[in-house]
Each structure stands twice: as structure tokens, then as C-alpha cells.
Protein: Methionine synthase reductase
Organism: Porphyridium purpureum
Amino acid sequence: MGVDVLYASATGNAEEIARRIHAELSDHGLEAGLLVELNQFVDAGWPLSPTASGTEFAGKVCVLVASTTGDGDVPANGTKVLRYLRDKAKPKKFMQGLRYCILGLGDTNFENFCNSARRIDKALLQAGAENVYLRGEADDGTGLEEVVEPWIDGLWDKLLQACSNSKGVPAPAKENGSEKIIPKETGAHENGDTLELPHPLELRVQLSVDSGDPAQEGTGHHKTWCASAAVRDMTVFNVSISAARRLTAVDLVDRRVWHAELDCSEIQFSYRPGDTVGVVPQNRDEHVDQLLKRVALPVGLSLEEVDTTAVKLVARDGGRQDIVRNVSLRTCFRDLVSLADAPKKTLLVALAQFCSDVADKRAMQWLASKEGREDYRKRIMAPGGWGILSVLDSFPSCLPSAELLLDQLPALAPRYYSAASSPKADPTRFHFAFSTVLFPDGQRGLVTGMLEDMCSSVEAGAGAELGPLRIVLGQKDHFRPPADLATPMIMIGPGTGIAPFRGFLRERQAQIDALALKNGQSAGVRGDAWLFFGCRHKDKDFLYDTELAEFVDSGVLTRLTVAFSRDSADGVKTYVQHRLLEEREQVLARLLAPGECRLYLCGDGGAMVRGVEDALCEILAPHTQNDLASARVLLKEWEKAGRYRKDVWHWG
Ligand SMILES: Cc1cc2nc3c(=O)[nH]c(=O)nc-3n(C[C@H](O)[C@H](O)[C@H](O)COP(=O)(O)OP(=O)(O)OC[C@H]3O[C@@H](n4cnc5c(N)ncnc54)[C@H](O)[C@@H]3O)c2cc1C
Ligand SMILES: Cc1cc2nc3c(=O)[nH]c(=O)nc-3n(C[C@H](O)[C@H](O)[C@H](O)COP(=O)(O)O)c2cc1C
């Protein structure tokens, strides 16, 4: 019985690691079983209705790799497994006999670090399976490979033991008490040394020239062939920007924030305050052109035909049925894969095989090797590091196949934006605010650059001539305004973190208006709604200032406290956390008053979150015998109980 490898992955990291482990099993004397998404566990022989005897799992050995997404969630292609494992109708310990190793991927910038792997691990143990290796927890915030590499190094021995124990034969002995050194595929380094390289992955994409025209994009629901793996299971809608305005002053060139409104009247789309919309990106034409000139095209296709001739793309995808698309090669490279994200080491190893120049080949192998990890980190992983175009620029003799790049470049993932509107007030429109991402080399972020062009054109009255926007809905059930108007709330949203709170306030306004209509003038008991906002300058980037003032005037917002970080005469920077501390007595009184005040935090950046949470702990300390550690525990408890809710993101 082979070792199955199962993965749950949102943006491809866990999938790539799972593929690598699967590819390397045979190098270590292990029989490779299936490589499938976690949701396809039935294919790995996990029966939907297991018997109490647990015989179905006897002797099975598997490796699981699971990233965490959303707010500590299992990625969509792995969610079914938790339901399966926790199903109370199943016999107790029905998975007895299964031995497994699990690797979690996460990011310590997020609250629930590696929560997905932790939950799956716990559920497997409760179902009677046996974990034969320490759970790995790799941190994308500091570099996944710090944990992934040593974890994989130690994995083989555990699997060999698990497999031989399953067969009732002793595990292979270690040589001289140390780990058995197993030969890996090696490449010669410039100095004649050998390098330790990851195993190249099995290619899962095939391209061939198809007769006929490439299929045209539909409107409304998007055809699945146009979706990258990152949005494959989601409904993709085509919408247009119907209104837009710049929220920051025109002379504030290094910080540009826009308000945009999506017209959703033509689509079956419903959202709630707190939800997000994911904008599905397309790579820029000039980058696609550049790439198309640097790939070996499928046999029978010339560069002149990359727009007009259909190619048949067949992809075996995570144990699913083959996905077949009949599209132009340009569409494939425009819509499916990311050209900016760091290429994985397994791709570099494969690219080395396409270098005709020996020096290029060696240098590429060096970057992919364990020995060259520092160079990989500096050149590829560092902010502004090489995407595939820079890699190909630096290795001029490398002419990879289009199949390889479509298979192994990271999927092009949607960028999410929080609803700044309420369906009660804006039933057919979704509002959001975005900050244009500006890079030191003068480039703009892929999506925010495109959105800015669209918004400028709409603001100038030119209409949505830049074509439809493709979106998916991202639900955020943990980030909702209180259902009851009587529940008090404190909202902390500096910068574009204000966006969901504008949505909350519009919802609140609509609720108050509806109640007033029903009950005459009285809208019943209303809890406090206190907003902390922060920006640089009062007259340049105070987002939604007029509307917020109106909310205060109408009583929808009971207090508005603002921090301007660059307006003070003495040059001292004041942020929202400083304002919170200035108001500490009032904040504490509200947090401890009956009525369970809700606390919300939204915005960009780990530093902001740390600053605000430190301030909150200081504020809570008098309530915890002036012990900051206990205050932190209390904040955590509130978070678990849903009294404190966060929606924070990190793009840099
Ligand atoms: C749940 C959630 C809600 C969000 N809500 C909002 C919101 O309401 N408003 C908002 O503005 N944002 C929000 N974001 C962030 C948003 O989704 C995007 O991440 C952000 O707008 C950047 O997208 P982009 O495509 O423009 O940038 P990208 O092109 O993806 O660039 C971002 C990263 O790419 C790299 N990069 C690419 N090119 C270069 C280069 N030339 N030089 C240096 N580095 C480079 C860098 O690592 C950079 O950090 C949210 C994110 C999440 C997860
Ligand atoms: C929108 C989003 C939400 C995330 N949420 C969490 C989280 O709650 N906890 C965590 O540990 N990591 C979180 N991460 C980090 C990912 O788990 C990490 O980047 C991982 O490498 C992604 O692997 P994947 O490409 O296989 O999905 C999140 C990443 C993104 C983009």
C-alpha cells in the first residue's frame, strides 16, 4: 500500500509542498500512493460509511499538508474532511489503523496560527488515527522553508517506520545511529561540489493546438476555464464600476485612496456588512507579451497565433477530473498564473533543465538548492524580489515550455476588499475603498493599479470603458455588526480599515430609519457607537470625513475620535492607539458596562494591530489587577467569545 499525500491549499503553497513530498517518496524507498486534495479523501480509500471495526484504515499511511486561510479556516478544498472526521454518526475511533504525519502552513501575522492543521490533527486523533511525527508548523511571515525543509528531512524515516510497522516488519535500521543518507538528485555546482536539490514535480498540464477559435468570455457567471485554481470553486461575476471618487487630496501623490461602487444589479449577488469582494486579477498585457516571447510554444503554434488560435489545456488537478479549457495561450497566461509571486524552488529545478547554457543551468540549480538558500531568500523571497520575468531575464538561455509555467507558477489569486456599504441602504451596489499600492520602482500593485485606472476613468466621466471587473464574494461571518441596535460597539479602523465601519454605520442608519418608520419617531434603545479613525493629515486623507460628520450629527455615531499622525506642530506622531490611551477611562467604562460592548478592529498591517492591542491591554489592566498578561488573556477570551472581532490584512 503506497503513502497517500493529501493537501488543503488556498493559494498553492501547501499544494506545491505536497507535490514535492509525493514526488520524493520513491527516492526514499517508499511506495507513492495518491496525491489528492483533502476533499477527495474518498479516493484515498477513506470510506464515507466506515465500519466500527476500522479495518478500512488498517495499514494505511498518509501525509497531510494544510495551510490556513480566512480567519483560522481550512482552505475550501479541504473543508469536507473536518465534517467527515467530526461526524458523530460515525463509529468511535473509526480511523484506528491509519498512521499519518501532518504539516501546517500559516503566518504568525494572523491570529490563529496554523489553526487549520491543528484542527485537522485534533480531529484525526479523536477519530482514532495515530500521528507518527511531530506536527510541523511553518510560518510564511518568516519564511516557510525554515520549518518545511527540516520537517521533510525528518519525514522519511517516520514514514519508513510507519510503513514497516504496518506490515509487521521492523523499521530499517539507522546507519551508525544517524539518519540514513539517501541519495538525492544532485546537480554539479560551479566548484564541482554537488548540490542538494528538490525533486522536480510531475507535470500535470498538457497543451496542444486545437482546431477552431478560442472560446469567448461569457458575461455574468464566468466560465470555469477562465478561472485560476484560486477561484475555481467560486462563482465569478462580471460587474462594472458605476461610481468612483478619490478620497485623498490630489496633491497627496504617495498615498492615494479611492472609493468605488460596483453595479451588482444585473447579477445574482447578495452580501452582508463585513463581507469582502475578491477582485480576480489579470496579468498586464506587456508582462504577458514579455513572457510569451520567452517560452517554447506548443508544437504547431506561432507567436502570431497566441491570441487567435485555441489551445487545448488539459490539467489533472488534485485528484479531480481533468480540467479542459479551449482558450488562447494569451488568456492562459493572463488569467491563470501569477507572474509576480516568487517562483518555487521546484520550478527553478525544472527551469534549470531548460537552460541551454551550462553556466545558467548551474546558477539556476544553485538558487534552487539547499546550499543556495540565502541567495534564494535575497533574490527571490525579499520584498520586490524576482518574479518569473526577472528570473528569465537573468537566465537568458532558459526557454521553458509553456506547460511547465502553467503547471508550476503560483495561481493568480483574488485580492479582497471590505464592503463599505450595507445591502439595506445599497441593495444593488457594493462599495469599497482601496489604497493604491505603490512600489519603490514606480510600479503599482496589480489590482490596485488596474482599479485606479478604472476609477480615474469613471471619475472623469469616461464610463467603464476599461472592461468589466471580475469578482468573487468573500464571506466574513465573524465580522458582522451587532444585530441588536442596543448593543454598544467600539470600532477601530485607521486608513482603509474605516471601510467596513462605513458599511456598519450605513446598516445602522437603515435599521434606525426602518424602526422609526414602524414605531413613529422612536427607534428604541440604542447602544453607543464609537469610532476611532486615524490618518496622516486632517485635510488630505481623512477618508469619508463629511459622511462621518453626518453620522455624528444624526446620532448614528455617538462618538468619533480621530488621530492625525503628521499634523502636529512638534512632529510627534499620534496614532489611533494613542487616542485610545487618552480616552482610557471612557473606553474601559464602556467595555465593562452591562450590555457586552463589541470591540472591532480593522486595517492593514501587523504594526498597527500590535500597537492597538498593546493599548487595549493597558486600558484593561486596571481590571486585571494591573497585570498586562492577564489583560491579554482577557482580550483573547473576548476574541474567542466574539466580543472582540478583527479583520486585518497584510499585503507587504
Ligand atoms: C480580508 C482582506 C480584506 C482586505 N480589505 C482591503 C480593503 O478594504 N482595502 C484595501 O485597500 N486593501 C484591502 N486588502 C488588501 C488587498 O486585498 C490587496 O492585498 C492589496 O490591495 C494589494 O493588491 P495589489 O494586487 O494591488 O498588489 P500586488 O500586486 O499583489 O502587490 C502586493 C505585493 O506584491 C509584491 N510586489 C509585486 N510587485 C512588486 C514590485 N514591483 N516591487 C515590490 N514588491 C512587489 C510585494 O510583496 C507586495 O507586497 C484586504 C485584504 C484581505 C486579505
Ligand atoms: C487571506 C489570508 C488569510 C490567512 N489566514 C491565516 C490564519 O488565519 N492563520 C494563519 O496561520 N495563516 C493565515 N494565512 C497565511 C497562509 O496560511 C500562508 O500564507 C500559507 O503559506 C498559504 O498557503 P497556501 O498557498 O497553500 O494556501 C492567511 C493567508 C491569507 C492570504
